[in-house]
Write a structure and sequence with these properties.
CATH class of the largest domain in chain B: Alpha Beta
CATH superfamily of chain A: Thiamin diphosphate (ThDP)-binding fold, Pyr/PP domains
Distance between the termini of chain B: 38 Å
Number of domains of chain A: 1
Distance between the termini of chain A: 16 Å
Helix content of chain B: 25-40%
Strand content of chain B: 15-25%
Oligomer: heterodimer
Number of domains of chain B: 2
Mean pLDDT of chain A: 95
Largest sheet of chain A: 5 strands, parallel
Structural class of chain B: alpha/beta
Order of helices and strands of chain A: EEHHHEHHEHEEEHHEHEH
Low-confidence stretches of chain B: none
Number of strands of chain A: 9
CATH architecture of the largest domain in chain B: 3-Layer(aba) Sandwich
CATH topology of the largest domain in chain B: Rossmann fold
CATH topology of chain A: Rossmann fold
Number of strands of chain B: 12
Chain lengths: 279, 307
């Protein structure tokens, strides 16, 4: 089902939104011959649920002071974020065609010059500390915005995240919700082989976060969980979302190569077919 | 100097609720008055400078004016990428304060020598870089840091530095100061607490019958080039004295200005070597490395005789 706004059909539920994020992200990456499509696909369901059913944001007023804040710390998955922002009406869909093009504002890594983006990212381990600062400002003024930060599991190698983890727990930043998109793959191999993070949930618990694990592709479970946050008073919340890199396109799923590769025309057409794009 | 900074910060925080102070677990016996008066706007972020800088950015993106405070290289190089990507790129209102510029922590060793900070901070987009010469300049620059939007770096001495100014100087962003009104043919140019040595060198030169202009550069970036060049009018030799390595600091900034102005003026630097493998108090190290008043005066005299 879709709602018609002007000439553009905007998805009206998270499942449709996730499908559209995937379709647009793949098209954007293919058209620009850029990388990281696997990373956008693994978090597409998380973004769809956040932007459809969780975040209090207003596409017509991206700077609305009372909004919830969203930070994509894994900034290389920019295609997915730009797609969801366009699909929610933060900027015209036509702009997506400019992704990674010469002179474009839609950089290959997330840029705050794009409406709806709170923080430019791209180097890993930056989002969570900034999220802490945003929550701290609100907390001292007794405001109740929530700040959601999506990290990758490989990103948890960065020490700055653990500095922020200590800080958030110490300062009882319970309006901070970190979501780890745990697709178990990173730059050069499996997370478990590159630098073991396991037991990851226990690590965050040991840092005094309230931790919940979820299937990162189960919309109902994500919606219920994310709307429950904060999970425990006085504790920051950590959602360990188990995901599959490249989710939704069979030949990309759980394949490291799709951190780098861009689909050729044949692969693009096959991917779009699998995603059920209406021609 | 540290206390002057803290006192002005308190004064400004009373007038402006947006002023916050974060420390990387340093500032014992300096920051307590701020912490006591503004407990909700003071945070000891622990020994975690990357996070401190990210938190400062988050606070500033929520409308605050945030000072981060630590010593030597800890609030700068330790968290350099956070400063570049988070603070600078977002033009965040984050004011980085490093205590212990140059060889302030002389006996503490290499880890505590802030001898490349001006170059590194100066290279960052949108960053103001300031190094006050005494407590009066520090107080003024603290006020300017609050009223100037965007990223700001200020490196301070520690304590009890000699006074350079008899009265609070009138400081505008980027403006150099001429500390004496003579029209000698040599200009001694310096920044930070080393300015006091340079002033003493000028007095020594005067007693030998040589007039030297002394320029204090509270700002390494931006620099009001026009004003700087005006101060050099009629000068044939510029001697830059810096407690910093030769790469990218005040000397480099002045060299760029002079080169671009195509002036017929001789340019010489006294600077630190890249490595200092021994320790000493700041005073003794300056002597050993040719940065004390005597060495500066001698160097100036030699240069004037040669040229």
């Amino acid at each position: 089902m879709t709602i018609k706004l002007s000439e553009i059909e905007y998805p009206s539920n998270s499942l449709d939104l996730a499908q559209q994020i995937r379709i647009h992200a793949i098209k954007m990456v293919a058209q620009s011959n850029s990388s990281h499509i696997g990373s956008s696909l693994s978090m597409a369901d998380i973004l769809a649920v956040l932007y459809m059913d969780v975040l209090r944001v207003d596409p017509k007023q991206p700077d609305w002071p009372e909004r919830d804040r969203f930070i994509l710390s894994k900034g290389h998955a920019a295609a997915g974020l730009y797609a969801v922002l366009a699909l929610r009406g933060f900027f015209p869909m036509a702009l997506l065609k400019r992704f990674c093009q010469e002179g474009s504002l839609l950089l290959g890594h997330v840029s705050h010059h794009v409406p709806g983006v709170e923080l430019s990212t791209g180097s890993l381990g930056h989002g969570l500390p900034v999220g802490c600062g945003m929550v701290l400002a609100d907390k001292r003024e007794e405001k109740s915005h929530r700040v959601f930060v999506v990290l990758s599991d490989g990103e948890c190698d960065e020490g700055s995240n653990w500095e922020a983890a200590l800080f958030a727990a110490h300062h009882k930043l319970d309006n901070l919700v970190a979501i780890v998109d745990a697709n178990e793959l990173q730059g050069f191999g499996r997370v478990d082989e590159v630098l073991k993070l396991a037991p990851l949930a226990e690590k965050w618990r040991a840092f005094r976060w309230a931790v919940r694990e979820v299937d990162g592709h189960d919309h109902q479970a994500l919606k219920t969980l994310l709307n429950q946050a904060p999970f425990e008073p006085d504790h920051p919340s950590l959602v360990l979302a188990h995901t599959i890199k490249g989710k939704g396109v069979s030949f990309m799923e759980d394949q490291l190569a799709w951190h780098y590769k861009s689909p050729n025309p044949e692969q693009l057409s096959q991917a779009l077919k699998q995603l059920g794009e209406k021609r | 100097m540290r206390n002057a900074f803290c006192n002005v910060l308190i004064e400004m925080a009373r007038q402006d609720e947006r002023v916050w102070l974060l420390t990387g677990d340093l500032g014992f016996s300096v920051l307590e008055p701020f912490a006591k008066e503004f407990p909700s706007r003071f945070v000891n972020a622990g020994v975690a400078e990357q996070n401190m800088t990210g938190v400062a950015t988050g606070l500033s993106l929520s409308g605050k004016i945030v000072f981060t405070y630590s010593i030597a290289n800890f609030p700068t190089i330790r968290c350099l990428e956070q400063i570049r990507n988070d603070v600078c790129y977002h033009k965040a209102n984050v004011k980085i304060v490093a205590v212990g510029g140059g060889l302030c922590y002389g006996t503490a060793g290499f880890s505590h020598h802030a001898t490349e900070d001006l170059a590194i901070m100066r290279a960052l987009p949108g960053m103001v870089v300031a190094a006050p010469s005494d407590a009066l300049e520090a107080a003024q620059i603290t006020r300017l840091a609050i009223t100037t939007p965007g990223p700001f770096y200020m490196v301070l001495g520690k304590n009890n530095e000699p006074t350079v100014h008899a009265n609070p100087p009138m400081l505008n962003l980027g403006e150099p100061l001429c500390l004496n009104k003579n029209l000698g043919e040599i200009a001694l140019v310096s920044t930070g607490t080393l300015v006091s040595e340079v002033l003493r060198a000028a007095e020594m030169l005067k007693s030998s019958g040589i007039e030297a202009r002394v320029l204090s550069m509270p700002f390494i970036k931006p620099i009001d080039c026009e004003k700087f060049l005006q101060f050099l009018d009629g000068c044939r030799l510029v001697l830059v004295v810096e407690e910093h390595t030769a790469f990218g600091g005040l000397g480099s900034a002045i060299a760029e200005i002079l080169a671009e102005a195509s002036l017929d003026i001789k340019f010489v630097r006294i600077h630190l070597p890249e490595f200092i493998n021994f320790i000493g108090s700041q005073k003794e190290l300056r002597k050993m490395l040719g940065l004390d008043a005597h060495s500066i005066a001698n160097r100036a005299m030699t240069l004037l005789t040669k040229n």
